[in-house]
Amino acid sequence: PPFDEPPAGRGSTATAERKPRRTGRTIGVVVVVVLVLLVLAAAWLAFRALTVKSELEQSRAIIGQVQHDERDLRDALGDLGDHAAAAASAAGDPVWRVAEIVPVAGDNLRGARLAAESLDVAVNDLGVPALGAFGGDGEGSAFSRVLPVLDSAAPEVVRLAGELADVQKSTALIGPVRDGVDQVAEVMGGAAPLIELLPEMLGANGPRNYLLVFQNNAETVGLGGSAASQSLVRADGGSIDIVRQADSGRYANDTPVDVEVPQSALDLYSDFLVKRINTSSSRPDFPTMARIVTEWWQRDIADDQIDGVLSVDPIGLARMLRATGPIQLATGDELTEDNAVDLLLNEAYVRWGPQETKHFADAFFASAAVSIFDKLAGGDFDLKDMAWAVGEGIDRGNIMFYSPHEDVQQVVEPLRLSGILPEDNVDATTIGVYFRDESASKIDYYMDSAIDVAERCTDGRRTFTTETTLHLDIDQAAADVLPEYVRSQTWGSSQFRTQVYVYGPPGTTVDSVSVDGRDVTLMRDDVQDLGRPVAWFQTYLAPTERATVTATFAAEDGEFGEVELRSTPMINKTDVELTSEGCGR
């Protein structure tokens, strides 16, 4: 035949030989392409990572400049916002997001992205618009202008806080990423619930009433000073106004308010805790004071709903004046950061005669409070300086807050702002030293104090020795010519009585006590209050005299954090020394 058929099987064999070669070439091409893509993706990811690193480092440098007063906050926020946005954009790249599924490396990429996004939200969604609101952009009060900013940013802040908390659990995070994630998570975790609650607290959904208590440190009482004057502040849609005011003379003192307090508190502070509004701050637990003052107000002034109690003293207010600038009072006085403490806690008592002093001094406090409050409510202050003033005031016990609303108090409770002593020693071993003037005087303008705490560990036993010294730094001649209202209503200028309460760490017991001075007495050392052992002393000081009381608390060695001291905020700053011997951590 003209066309012979190929031998059986010949054509199929050739085809079979060609197929594996083609398949092999195809696989090789695919592998090469994949490898090239992986290399390109890795290079792109490395480029993006370097971008994120560079932008975050520049952001950190700007934050440092602001913190060290090398740059104005308003000027810095613009640049900070640009760097934050660039970092977030680079970390939000699709290739980056896909790479987050890779074991080990993925968690680190996710952590870096969340840190970048958090900075972007904090600066561009919160910081810049909030600064604009407080800078006078738009209509209404500063706080009413900031409400939509909070509403808009809250969902993202809450989301990021949750995701950061989740990535924190990863054991794959490397050192620098771990440090960065932990720092950002702490900030966002603390901010999220507060930003969620602030609109409600500012009256976004209806009026909220707050009792503002002004403590007078010239008459030392526990948490700060006597509760000299009170104001009802109303927040409604971001507008904040003082509705009414009262001073201690408006209350039915000596008729106790109906507030349940533990027997331990009455054992230490007597029923004066609930029968005199001035001594409502005796117990070093701000929720106790807040509930007592609220009951005083509702019983004797007006039956207002109270949604929170805020306490501020002149020391805290003086710091705020750095942010507001000088304030003109109704009396014609100019109140400044430098003269506020002297003017409010000393000079006010020199101006008026004995019969007028109390009325005019309380009115003076009220006038100062209203003037400062108007500045704050209007947003007429430097935001950075105010943040410093409030933070410092909280850390030093000059500013405290309590809310009867469970959701708000739950956020406040772990913070120093709450005025609550810690219940354990895990994060810190806290010792408290508190003073209460019992001279019916305003002598504490002249009182100096020093507290030394020595922690020692030997043979499985841990002790905490607290030595407290009071010094009445005024001579007899000067004391004799003090205004009558400043001198003791009982002993004149001859002597003054101060109680000292030393609260040991939870889980310890009073091991020993000692006293040194002309007339110093241990009153009790067998009372447990707020879950802590208490050593209670009484001192009598004549002008120029000193008194020292010492209490040692002991426990079997266990989990104890670094020693921390909390004490009554004094006009003359307390000298503090903390030492530890043989207690390795």
TrEMBL record:
<feature type="transmembrane region" description="Helical">
    <location>
        <begin position="27"/>
        <end position="47"/>
    </location>
</feature>
<dbReference type="Pfam" id="PF13196">
    <property type="entry name" value="DUF4012"/>
</dbReference>
<keyword id="KW-0812">Transmembrane</keyword>
<keyword id="KW-0472">Membrane</keyword>
<feature type="region of interest" description="Disordered">
    <location>
        <begin position="1"/>
        <end position="20"/>
    </location>
</feature>
<dbReference type="InterPro" id="IPR025101">
    <property type="entry name" value="DUF4012"/>
</dbReference>
<protein>
    <submittedName>
        <fullName>DUF4012 domain-containing protein</fullName>
    </submittedName>
</protein>
<keyword id="KW-1133">Transmembrane helix</keyword>
